[in-house]
Design brief:
Layout (H helix, E strand, L loop, with lengths): L2 E4 L5 H7 L7 E5 L8 E6 L2 H14 L4 E6 L5 H13 L4 E6 L6 H13 L4 E5 L4 H11 L2 E6 L10 E7 L1 H13 L6 E5 L6 E3 L8 H17 L7
Parallel strand pairs: 1-2, 2-3, 3-9, 4-5, 4-6, 6-7, 7-8
Antiparallel strand pairs: 8-10
Helix pairs in contact: 2-3, 4-5
C-alpha cells in the first residue's frame, strides 16, 4: 500500500502527523491543510459551479427571492451563487442561511421553513448530508431546488431545476493516475470544470431550452478562458 485516501478534512491532522513516519506512502485528503512532502489536499474550485447554479435560480424564480441553505460560511459556491443569480436577474434577492453542520437535517428544515415564509421559491441546497430531506420538503411545497455535489434530478424533475455536480470518482482516478506516473504533487491542489470533475447536472424540463443553451455556452467559454460571464 503506497497511496491512501481520506475522504474529508477530518483526516488532515492525522495524515500530517503520521506522514513523516511513512515516507513511502502518499496521503491524500479533501478540503484541508497539507503539510509534508507526501501529503496532498484535494479541493474543488466551486465558485464557478455556484455561479452557474445561481444563474438558473435567477432565471427561474417567480418571486425574485431565492435562497442558499449552506453548511458553512467558507464554502466558495455561496458567493458564486449570489453573483450568478444577480448577473441573470438584477432584481433578485438572495437569502443565505447556514446550518453549521453537513448533516443536521433538523436545523436545515427549520431554516428552510424560515426561507419559505420569507417568499423564497428556489433554494440551492449546499450541504450534501441534509439535501435530500430539504429537497423533499421543497417538493411538498411545490417549490424548487438546485442540487449539490451529485445529480439529484432523480428526486423530482419538476422540483430539481439542475444540480452542481462534483465528480469525486473521476477526481480519484485522476489523482491515482498522476501518482502512478510519479507526478502527484504535495500541498493543496484545486480542480474545476476544466479538469472534467465539475459539471451541471440534468436540467428539469421546466428550464427553457434556449436558456440552457446560453448557459452551456457560458460554461464552455469559462473552460476556455477561466472567466465567468460577469468578468467578460
Amino acid at each position: 500500500m503506497n497511496l491512501i485516501f481520506g475522504h474529508g478534512s477530518e483526516y488532515a491532522n492525522f495524515f500530517n502527523t503520521i506522514s513523516s513516519e511513512y515516507p513511502d506512502i502518499h496521503f491524500v485528503l479533501f478540503n484541508g491543510k497539507a503539510d509534508g512532502e507526501n501529503v496532498t489536499s484535494l479541493n474543488f474550485k466551486s465558485n464557478a459551479m455556484g455561479f452557474f447554479g445561481g444563474m438558473v435560480a435567477g432565471e427561474m424564480t417567480k418571486t425574485e427571492n431565492v435562497g442558499i441553505l449552506a453548511a458553512y460560511e467558507w464554502q466558495p459556491e455561496i458567493d458564486g451563487f449570489f453573483e450568478g443569480a444577480y448577473f441573470q436577474n438584477d432584481n433578485v434577492q438572495v437569502d443565505i442561511q447556514y446550518v453549521q453542520d453537513w448533516n443536521d437535517t433538523a436545523t436545515a428544515i427549520t431554516l428552510l421553513d424560515k426561507m419559505i415564509n420569507n417568499g423564497v421559491d428556489i433554494v440551492y441546497v449546499a450541504g450534501d448530508g441534509y439535501n435530500v430531506s430539504v429537497i423533499e420538503r421543497l417538493k411538498e411545497k411545490g417549490l424548487y431546488a438546485i442540487g449539490f455535489v451529485s445529480d439529484q434530478s432523480d428526486l423530482g424533475k419538476e422540483t430539481v431545476l439542475t444540480s452542481t455536480v462534483q465528480h469525486v470518482d473521476v477526481l480519484y482516478e485522476i489523482v491515482a493516475n498522476s501518482f502512478n506516473k510519479g507526478e502527484l504533487e504535495s500541498g493543496e491542489l484545486f480542480f474545476d470544470f476544466q479538469d472534467g470533475v465539475i459539471s451541471m447536472g440534468k436540467f428539469s424540463p421546466l428550464v427553457d431550452k434556449k436558456f440552457q443553451s446560453t448557459l452551456k455556452d457560458y460554461i464552455e467559454e469559462y473552460k476556455e478562458t477561466g472567466l465567468l460571464p460577469n468578468q467578460l
